[in-house]
Amino acid sequence: MKLTDVRGLELTTDSPKAVEHFNASIAANAEYRLSAGDLMAEAIEADPNFTMAHCVMGYYMKSAEAFAPPEASMESLLAAEATDLSKVTPRERASVAALRAWVENRQDDAIAIWDSILDDHPTDLLTLQLVHYRNFWHGKAIAIKDSVARAFHAWDASMPNFSNVLGMYSFGYNENGDKVRGLELGLQAVELNPDDLWAVHAVSHVYHDTGDKDKGIALLSGPKPEWDDRNAIREHLRWHESILHWDKGDYDRVLDLYDNHIAKAITPFYLDIQNTAAVLWRLECAGVDVGSRWKDLSDVVAQRVVTRNLPFTDVHLAMVLGRTGEKDRMNQLISSIRSDADTARNSHEMSSAETDLAVCEAVDAFCQADYKTAIDKLLPARWNGYRSLGASDAQRDVISVMLGQAALKANENTLARSIFAQRVESKPASQLSWLWYATALEECGNETEAQQARSRMLTLDGSLAAA
Ligand SMILES: [Fe+2]
């Protein structure tokens, strides 16, 4: 028997109760609510032969990553495959095939299947989210926007979770350089549903990239009890708040956010590792003593060297291992990435692994004060802003900061001047950018320009004005 979901897509089940739980779960997942998994479990309980409920549970388990047992996504896949797939719709069958590809870490195959599903069913919200996120984490920046662009015609404000689609589209535009359209769509999404944390997240990215720090802080700061029932997006939004304060030179506030939110309940989940290591690295680049905080990350990082997941996480694992002097684990990490490069199945995987390897080797060299090697490793992939690593412009900025710092420390002053000249063009509202640019100019003997850069810095909002 066929019923339909809240957006009219066919579901093979004869249980209206199961569909009710299914709809509630998809809506909860769209808002990053912790209840999404339990609601899908209730759908399965209402109809144990509900193929899509098993499949979506598999998607959840794979997305939950370190929060779920390693075998959980495979168990859901097998449960979905054990239902009668000859009786389900082509969309449902394709979804199960995509889950198998993803569980087997054939990311590109999964994305191709999801793209195909969306060609026929552009209102399949969860599939749209999955393709959006996987493109994001696997360095396919153009596809972050275009996957939504292909589906957008089928959506309007009367449809459930439209804000989520607006939020994805906003983020896609932002990551492809159109901050104006990104902000327009993002604000529309937040106005439609302030509870939609992907929409809030998209707007926070625009404010970061455009240097609208106070607007970003106003959006993200405060107790936020409404975030209590959300997953790790909460800590990532606090990370966003922290880098806005970092850019203003308010390092006490950054440490406060780090200690009381970002690292407070640190887990091996990849986003936690990225958030924490990136904050500590940025603080040190600004000359802040972070005390024993790197050491506090050792245990969770040790687990992830064995269970690596994303190139961008590898970079942060390397930061922790480099800062804690764990050379054996660093070698283990680098050797594992090198084997990824050796076994890449296509040019995209090759590019991703090679960039991953180069950046992690650069981190290793940087932490051993071998700044010239760090520069040599980082320069080749500078041309595309390390996009092959996945993640956002805001997140990958830490690598550009590292390159600039390495150039200053290696007395490669002309290179440092070039790097920070580029940075003040792209981040003219950043006091730190102007401070580093002024330092590089001074090292090059460009006293007049250095003075002008310092004067420019003093016109900007932030505590570095007193430096
Ligand atoms: Fe983000």
Characterization of the model:
- By secondary structure, this protein is mostly helical.
- The chain has three domains: 2-172 and 259-385, no CATH class; 173-258, Tetratricopeptide repeat domain (Serine Threonine Protein Phosphatase 5, Tetratricopeptide repeat), CATH 1.25.40.10; 411-466, no CATH class.
- The chain has 25 helices and two strands.
- It has helices spanning 16-30, 36-46, 51-64, 72-82, 90-103, 107-120, 125-137, 141-151, 162-175, 179-192, 197-210, 213-220, 233-248, 251-262, 270-285, 293-296, 298-306, 311-323, 327-342, 347-367, 371-378, 393-409, 413-426, 431-443, 447-458, and strands at 2-4, 10-12.
- The longest helix is centred in the last third of the chain and has 21 residues, at 347-367.
- The termini are far apart.
- 51% of the residues are buried.
- The chain binds fe (ii) ion (FE2).
- Fe (ii) ion binds at residues 201, 205, 236, 240, 392, 394.
- According to DSSP, the number of beta strands is 2
Look at the helices and sheets and give the structural class: mainly alpha
Residues in helix, %: 55-70%
Bound molecules: fe (ii) ion
Query: What is the alpha-carbon Rg in Å?
Result: 23 Å
- The figure for the number of domains is 3
Lateral arrangement of strands in the main beta sheet: 1-2
Summary of the model, kept short:
The protein has 467 residues and is mainly α. The protein contains 25 helices and 2 strands.
Q: Any descriptors?
A:
467 residues; mainly alpha; Serine Threonine Protein Phosphatase 5, Tetratricopeptide repeat; 3 domains; two-stranded antiparallel ribbon; 2 strands; 69% helix; globular; binds fe (ii) ion
